[in-house]
Amino acid sequence: MATKVIVVSTNKGGEGKTTNSINLSDHSAIIQNKKTLLLDLDPQSNASNNYLPMEKDPAYPEGKRPPVHPAYDPNTHKDWDGRSSIADLFWGNDVCPYPTRFSNLDICPGHAFKLLEAERVTRSEVIEKIHRHLQRFIKQLQGLNKYELIVIDTPPSKGPLTVAAIKSCTHMVIPSQMETDSIDGVYGIMQLWKQEALSRPASDPIELVGIVANKFREVSLHKQFYDSLRSNEITSRLLMDKKMKERIIYPELRVKDPVTNQTRSIFELDKKDKARLEVEEVCGEIMRRVYQHG
Amino acid sequence: MGKKKFAIPTADFNALHDTMSAAFNNTGTGHVDVIPLRKLELDPENPRDFAIEIIDIQQGIELDDPQAERKQKEMDSLRGLADSILTQGLINPVLVYESGEKYRIVAGERRTLASFIAKKEDIHAKILSSKPDLLKKSQLQWIENMLREDLSLWEKMKNLVEIVNAYSQEKNKPVAGITVTEISQLVSCSLPHASNYHSLLNGTDELKEEIKKGNIKNIEKAALIAKAPKEAQARLINMCVSGATPSELKQIKEDSNIRIIKKSSGGEHLKRITLGTTKQPEVVKMIVELIIENDKFLHLKDRIGDIRWDNHLSVKKGFRKLLRQLERARLERVEGV
After folding, report:
1. CA distances for A263 relative to A152, A161, A254, angstroms
2. Residue A100: enclosing H or E segment and its boundaries?
3. How far apart are CA A180 and CA A183, in angstroms?
4. Of A171, B25, B108, B127, which alpha carbon lies 20 to 30 A from A277's?
């Protein structure tokens, strides 16, 4: 079966893109046993930090860079500094995925400085330097058939990196709180989806999997916003049935253990844990929709 | 205190809805892009109206080319369009499909050739991902052609014949059996228009020849002639070529109908049949509508014209017209006129 490429994206920060990217990647690798690759296109590199001991970049202290790759051997790799990120793609360099502690999950981590620099390309260069590079990389991966699923975490913007991710993907998931500014963010990213959907041939569609109601609380605002999307024939098609409630467990899981320096996956919680059950339902629904498209 | 009410602002909601709807309804229909002109090529399977090739424009027409004179005329005829493209750009993208590294033209040969004359580097194109089938291609060309102000009746008819032939092949149905309703669906037009096209398709060779020569350019006149008895057509064609108006042609046609009806009766005194009377125009309306909604008589709607149902005189005249048309239609069926 062809490799599926899921982009998790919305125009607004704090909506749960990274949490959903991590949950989807873990679900695919741990629960569904699929060989999975996570690409972190967000200069904040929070998804990367979840799986790898990302380091402060001495050249750019506000941002992080990947650690030295476990496969790096200074004696044999003379022309390589041992670090690899997805940003290397845009500089014409090879990209080397990092293994994670989950055997089925690899990651191409971000690199704050390089990703920010990559976004600074001019309008005339963006197609060749950003879009096409990522598209070719994804096509190569699909051709190699090494991964069954690729998940792409994106920055909260409609810049070149987000557009490149959308142009390279087969499916799109939009997490959103049920609040006004968040719905604005959904609308913003849907313009990119629509543009891409209309430019693709029928044989190579970009499927909008759905809008995941995220950080959901049982308050009138959230319930009524959700219900109004549900009540319309067109918008209801894309609203996921399962919601992600606002829970403290999600940020808690991202805190690294002081001894192991590792985070925990939601799927390492007890099988009856409410949060785990909730995420299993959401991810299960996303995967069902992705794989039903063929 | 009552329950708080919250709603997504209507404008935002509608915007979301419209975005989704547009994407769902139009995915896979092709996209518009600017492509290098050098990547365009003519479809070798398309019968062409032009003799001139792209290479003639790029390298000049060879003096010893047997079609040199024709090609030069065609080049000259495209210069106006070329100038317009230079000054105002291309208003409507050409329609192409991907063929390897190149793009083949489905519709827009004139615009493409004119763009070469204008020495443009690239061209706006709507790109289909694969070659459309014959019926789809003819229909797309029809839509393109409708945008052309200079489209001749003959060019329209040729396109229509392609559509009808392709449809006949696809449905395994003889061309003669294609109905007015089917034509209206194939080219997305009203039934009266479709009735005109149907008549033209079944017109005589003489009529088609005059259309081809450009002597008959008006579709209403041409359809009127096509619907007339064969005996009257030669006269109608002459009158039309001489500049008769549609009303004048109609009158001649009506007179021909009456003469034919009288002739076919063999001189026997016509007995009138009175169909009764009513004071209610609505009853007449019911009868008229029942008749002209029948597939066989759809084309009569155009012939009887508009009836003002609030005006007794108009109703009387309209009903009489219908009776005459029915007599004529019956005669056509019986005597093959």
Report:
1. 20, 27, 5
2. none
3. 5
4. A171
**What is the amino acid identity at position B110?**
R
Given a contact cutoff of 8 angstroms between Cβ atoms, the answer to whether A254 and A263 are in contact is yes
Which H/E stretch holds residue A5? strand A4-8
Beta-carbon separation of A235 and B7 below 8 A: no
Summary mean pLDDT of chain A: 92
Dihedral through CA A268, CA A271, CA A276, CA A280, nearest 10? 110
User: pLDDT of A88-131, one tens digit each?
Assistant: 998 888 999 999 999 999 999 999 999 998 888 766 676 667 88
Q: Taking Cα atoms as reference points, which of A23, A203, A293 lies closest to residue B27?
A: A203
Interface test with chain B among A131, A167, A183, A227, by most B beta carbons within 10 Å? A183
| CA A39 vs CA A81, A151, A247, B334: distances in Å | 20, 6, 25, 78
Residues paired with A39 in a beta bridge: A108, A152
Cα torsion B39, B40, B43, B48: sign: negative
* Residues A145 and A3 sit within 8 Å (Cβ to Cβ): yes
Are the C-beta atoms of residues B111 and B144 closer than 8 Å to each other?
Answer: no
Q: What is the 3-state secondary structure (H, E, C) of B272-327?
A: CCCCCCCCCHHHHHHHHHHHHCCHHHCCHHHHHCCCCCCCHHHHHHHHHHHHHHHH
Residues 6+ apart with CB under 8 A from A111: A45, A57, A63, A64, A65, A66, A83, A85, A86, A87, A88
Rounded to the nearest integer, the mean pLDDT of chain B is 83
pTM as predicted: 0.63
Q: What is the CA radius of gyration of chain B?
A: 27
- Residue A128 DSSP one-character state: I
E strand segments, A163-254: 171-176, 207-213
Q: For residue A57, give the H/E element and its range.
A: strand A55-57
Bridging pattern class, strands A55-57 and A171-176: unpaired
Cβ separation A198–B31 shorter than 8 A: yes
- Number of other residues whose CB lies within 10 A of the CB of residue A247: 16
Q: What is the DSSP letter of B105?
A: E
List phi, psi (to 5°) of B39.
-90, -5
Contact assessment for residue A204 and residue A196, using Cβ atoms and an 8 Å cutoff = no
CB contact (8 A) between residue B19 and residue A194:
yes
pLDDT digits over B135-176, tens only? Answer: 888 887 787 777 666 678 888 888 899 899 999 998 898 888
CA distance A282 to A240: 8
Report residue A71's pLDDT band, with 50, 70 and 90 as the boundaries. very high
B129 lies within 8 A of chain A by CB: yes
- With beta carbons less than 8 A apart as the criterion, state whether B158 and B197 touch: no
State pLDDT tens for residues B170-201.
889 888 888 998 898 888 888 888 889 999 99
At a CB cut-off of 8 Å and minimum separation 6, what does A92 contact?
A133
The DSSP H or E segment spanning A90 is: none
The set of residues, in sequence order, having a beta carbon less than 8 Å from that of B107 and lying 6+ positions away, is B94, B95, B140, B141, B143, B144, B145
Which residues pair with residue B103 across a beta bridge?
B40, B98
| Residue among B8, B15, B28 whose CB faces A225 most closely | B8
Determine the Cα–Cα distance for residues A160 and B202; give it in Å rounded to an integer.
58
Q: Give SS3 for B71.
A: helix
